[in-house]
Structures are given as C-alpha cells and as structure tokens.
Amino acid sequence: MNRTSGKPTCKANVASVADGHRGATRRQFLKAAGAAAIGAPLIITSSALGNADRPAASDRIVMAGIGIGNQGRGDQGAFLGRNDVQYVAMCDVRDANRKQCKANIDNHYQNKDCKTYGDFRELLARDDIDAVHIATPDHWHAILVIEACRSGKDVYCQKPETLTLREGPLMVAAARRYGRVVSGGSQRVMEDYRGMLEPAWAGEFGTIKSINVNVGPLPQLCNLPAEDMNEDIDWDMWLGPASWGPYNSKRCSGSYSINGASWRSFSDYSGGGMTDWGAHHFGGATFVCDVRELQPTEVVYNDNAQGKWLDYIYPNGLTIHHNKPNSGNLQIVGTPGEKLAPKPIPEYKGWGGIYGDFIHCVKTRETPFRDIERGVNTCVLAHLGNIAYQLRRSLKWDAAAQQFVDDEEANRMVDRGRREPWQL
Amino acid sequence: MLDQAFEALKKYDYGTPISELQAIEDAVVASHTDAAVRQDLEKRLIAALDSGISRDAKDYVCRKVAMIGSPAAVPVLSKLAASEENSHLARHALERIPGPEAAAALATAATQLTGKLKIGAIASIGARRETAGVASLAPFLKDADPAVVRSAALSLGTIGGAEAAAVLQPAIQSATGDKTALIDSLLQCAESLLNSKKTAEAKAIYESLSGDQQPRLIRLAATRGLLACGAKAVES
C-alpha cells in the first residue's frame, strides 16, 4: 500500500497524524503551520479554519466508512451531517455502492475529494483517518474492528458486534491494547425501552427477579443455489472469512429480512434474529436490569408442551428469559412492595444520539454508551442461546475463562474456522 | 430416517432443501450421551467425506464432524484440507478435534501446502491455542512471503505465553518490512502473561516496546501495558 497516494485532498486533512492522540496532533500541526507562515506564504482557507457554523479542520474528526449498504448509508448520513466530522473515504465490495456513496459525499462537501476503496486494508492503511464506522455483514465485524484498532482508528461498529463468542474478548482486547474508542451501534437500547427503563432505575420494581426477551428466529444454514451475478460485486471479498458459497442475491442481500431473504438469516454471516434483533432487545433488557457489565453463568434449556425457551441465570440472581411462553417482550417480575433507591440513568454524551456519543468520546477519550465490551456482553446472550437451542440442552458458562463448563461439544462452538486467508 | 438422510446426502447440492439432512443433525445432537452411537455416526460421516459427494455436501459433513469428530476423522480431513474446495471447512473441523493427530495434520499441511491454503493451515494451528503449536509456527516467521510471516505471527499471538513471545522477539528485531502483526502478537503475548500473573515477564515485553524508535501507537500500547503491570503488582 502506498501511503502517500492514500493521502486525502480535502481541507480537513491538512495535517497528517501517525497515531495516538490525533486531535492534539492536528492542532499541533496547525500551530506549527502558523509559525511557518511567518517565513513563507501559506494559504489556509476559511473552511480549514472554521467559521461560526463549523469547527476548524483541526477540531473535526476525520472519518471513513466500511460497508455502505442499507444500514451503512444511514450511519454515514448521521456522521456526514455533523459539522465536527470530515468524511473523507469509504469502502465497499459493490461498485454501485462506491459510486453512489462518493456522489453523496462529494455533493455534500461540494468537491470531488471522497476516496473509494474495494479493499478495507487500503483504507485502514491511511494515517490521516481518525475513526471508521463499520456496517458490513456480521461475519466481517471482528476482523475489521481488530484491524482498525491495530491501525490506530477509533471505531463505531454496527450491532450485532460479534458473530461468535470468541470474537468478543479479542475485539475488547484490541480496543484496550491501543486505547481506542470502540462503540457498538444499537440506538434502540437507549431509545426503545424507556417505559421499562425509567421505572426500573427509579427503583419502582424493587429488586428485579426476571425479565423476558422475545426475539428470533434462529439462524439457518444457507444452501441457496447459484444465480447469475447481475451486479458488480467482489464476491470473494463479500464472503471473506465465511465459507464459500455461490453467488445468490438473497445470500448477500442487505435487506432487513431474517427469514431467508437476506444474509441476516444465515448462520455463516449472522446469528439470525437472535443476534440481529437480540442485539437491541437483549441490550435493552440488560440495560433495564443494569447488568450490562455481566455475562450469565448458565443457560437453562426448557422444552415441554408449552414450547421451547431459555432461562439465562446471572451471578447476581437475575434471570433473563428468552421467549418464555405467555410473556411479553421486556416483561419484568420485580419484588412487590419493595422500592429501591433511584439511580441516575446513564445518557449519551455530546449531541446527536448514539452517533454523537461516539464522536464526543473520540474527542474526549471517554467511554461510549455502548462500549464494545457492553455490546459483546449483549451478543453473548444471543450466541449462548443459539448454541443451547442447537444442542438442545442446558449449558454452564464460565465468563472469566470464556468457555463452557464440562461440555467439550459446546466448546467446539465458541468460535469457527475462517476461510483462508482471513484470521483474527 | 438417518439412512434416508445419508442417502439424500449423495445427491445433496446447492439448492437442495436442507430439511432432507435433518436426521443427521438430530443424530449428531442426540449422540451426546452415547459414545457408541457417536462412534458409529462418525464412521458414516467419514465414509461420506471419502466418497464422491458434492462440495456442498462435504462442507455440510465437515460442519458435523467439527461437532463430534475424533482423531479417527483426521486422515480424511487432512486430504480435504489440501483441496481448494473443501480446505476451509476441513480445517474448521481439524481445529476442533482434540489430540495430537489433528495438530500434527495441520502442521504437516502448513509445511506442504502453498499460497492461501498454507496460510489457512497456519491460522488453524493458532486457532487450536496449544503451546505445542509454537514450534510448528516458528519457522514460518522467516518465510520469504510476508503473508505467511503475518499469519504465523497472528497465530503465535493467539496462542500467547512466554514460548510464543520468545520466537516473536527476535523476529521483530530482524524484520525489515511491516512489523504490525509481529508487534501486535507480541503485545498479545504480554497480555496473556499478565493474565497468568507473570507480571515481570509481561513488563519486560512492554519495556522492550517503549523506546522512541517505536511508532507512537506502539508506545501508547506499551505504556498502557506497563500501567496494567503496575496495577497488577498492587493487586497482588
């Protein structure tokens, strides 16, 4: 990769930063540039210096996106609309997405500066980019988050953050190793469950004994037949670490279907509805019950005349049910007659919802609302559930060791092999 | 039902309703409590892998062998690991089968195969997370292909520990190209040592990466590691 040729041309990138505290480095650069102006002419545009409506280039976060399909476009729009972000590049395996995305960004900035890539490694090799947002299918998330951390980028990664149990700790470790801000991407955790969240944190339910989450379905193995490829897509790159399969438009569709018409349905690329919506609902349940920092120690598999459902047992005594018969989504069983002291509900930092929370934390190095570790803990519920349903038995989970207790078969499902040449 | 499913496997290919194989899935799950049944099922799966079934069918069977396979499945998986079509899911199974046979098969594959398949085998040695894999991986740090070096480094980082660190450190000293994977893997070794309460060894690694000659991101990581070592020392 020729790093020099990867230099952006937009005005926000007047400074090049190697790593570490990027904002400070850019500011230092501008300071140095100001000093240099004494000796030699230097043109700094009003755009670079900022104006009443826009921070100076030195205070903008230079961003790029990877995987700009349905969800990625939404995320991109949120970041592009911020005046404290300079969006400079994108990567996608579809040529049509690259062209459309570049047109949108260039139109937004009224220039031609947005660079497009088909290979994320070239984008991540650029040393002028502060942060990336990732909205690829789930089978790419772990590799991209870890590689982004290795290259010194902060990361906003769409939910569900992980595809396997093992990926989570590796993503957290990479974020911590390099001091990166890594946020998961579920806006619903904060916004969709206020009706239960506020009374729960106000102590009105007393000690919460259980909460139920209704979500599904389970993922299915994709066995779709080959179709003619009627789009310009790098198929090998789309598949990436997932097993090879022939091109089929449903296999790689980014629609929100979880019933066989998109990649979200299939186990090679997703945990099915369990992870796709579970990232929201389990996230909401763990937030309501204030166990976002914990993982369960046991998954009890129930199968009787009423149906199949799970009980996740937490070390603090809480039970999260999954699809318990005759129970509503986020239905709580509290302790009648008990009222607990109220606690302040954590809120997003900065402005602009979960996207603003991330940008604020990139600037301040604070911990985002859906810090990667919380996203991982949420996804653990979905993965444990998928494994328990597939094996049709109860499982004990050692969260510290990140393995099942006395169950070699289940431990074989903690991770999966990755197609060559990909590896974490 | 199981006989019918194995019969269906002979014609199974992309587009075949997967429900035709449900009895195999059921048998795999049910064999959890019966070693004899499992052994018999594994024999049938191995025989299927050794037959002329489709690529898709072999991939399906590899997924099942990954769940219940024993060293008995290693020979047929080794053959498939050398094939462009089935290498990935054969390795997926080999990564999971306990015992030295599967580890040895991957070590042999890493030595004998070339290109992406070689890299896949190297990655699978790391995925087994066995300290014994370090000896297999060490020679690849001197490979002429940077992609092989990178893969070996990442595998060593995945395994972690003092043994992996001991082969990574000289490789970093002598490397002339991109050192990102090598250094990241050494940092992973330091983390695993710290988690094993081998604070002094972890600290020595972090100190070795703290010099001004290191890129700023690495110095940042090393500083964070040294702080963690300090916290661990206070803890203990």
> Biggest sheet of chain B, open or closed, and with what strands and sense?
none
Which parts of chain B are unreliable, with pLDDT below 50 for 5 consecutive residues or more? none
Sequence of strands across the biggest β-sheet of chain A? 11-7-10-9-8-12-13
Biggest sheet descriptor of chain A: 7 strands, mixed
Q: SSE string of chain A, helix = H, strand = E?
A: HHEHEHEHEHEHEHHEHHHEEEEHHEEH
CATH topology of the largest domain in chain A: Dihydrodipicolinate Reductase, domain 2
Low-confidence stretches of chain A: 1-43
Beta fraction of chain B: under 5%
Shape of chain B: elongated
Mean of all residue-level pLDDT scores of chain B: 97
Number of helices of chain A: 15
Q: What is the annotated CATH architecture of the largest domain in chain A?
A: 2-Layer Sandwich
Percent helix of chain B = over 70%
Secondary structure category of chain B = mainly alpha
Q: Strand percentage of chain A, roughly? A: 5-15%
SSE order of chain B, as H and E?
HHHHHHHHHHHHHH
Query: Shape of chain A, please?
Result: globular
CATH class division of the largest domain in chain A: Alpha Beta
Q: Determine the most extensive contact between two protein chains.
A: A-B, 39 and 51 residues
Write a short abstract of this structure:
Chain A is α/β, with parallel strands linked by helices. Chain A has helices spanning 22-39, 46-49, 70-80, 95-109, 120-124, 141-150, 167-177, 188-191, 194-201, 235-239, 273-276, 278-288, 353-364, 372-391, 408-411; strands at 61-66, 85-91, 115-117, 131-134, 154-158, 182-185, 210-213, 298-304, 307-313, 319-322, 332-333, 395-398, 403-404.
Notes on the structure:
The complex is a heterodimer of chains A (424) and B (236). Chain A is α/β, with parallel strands linked by helices and 424 residues long. In chain A, 33% of the residues lie in helices and 14% in strands. Chain A has 15 helices and 13 strands. In chain A, the strands form two sheets. A seven-stranded mixed beta sheet of chain A has the order 11-7-10-9-8-12-13. A six-stranded parallel beta sheet of chain A has the order 3-2-1-4-5-6, with helices on both faces. The longest helix of chain A is centred in the C-terminal third of the chain and has 20 residues, at 372-391. In chain B, helix 11 packs antiparallel against helix 12. Chain B is 72% helix and 0% strand. With 236 residues, chain B is mostly helical. Chain B contains 14 helices and no strands. Chain B is elongated and about 65 Å long. Classes of the chains: A alpha/beta (424), B mainly alpha (236). The A-B interface holds A 18-20, 150-152, 173, 176-179, 220-221, 223-226, 243-246, 390-393, 408-409, 412-413, 415-424 and B 14-18, 29, 32, 56, 59-60, 63, 66-68, 85, 87-89, 91-93, 95-96, 98, 116-117, 119-120, 123-124, 126-127, 147, 151, 154-155, 158, 180-181, 184, 187-188, 191, 215-217, 219-221, 224-225.
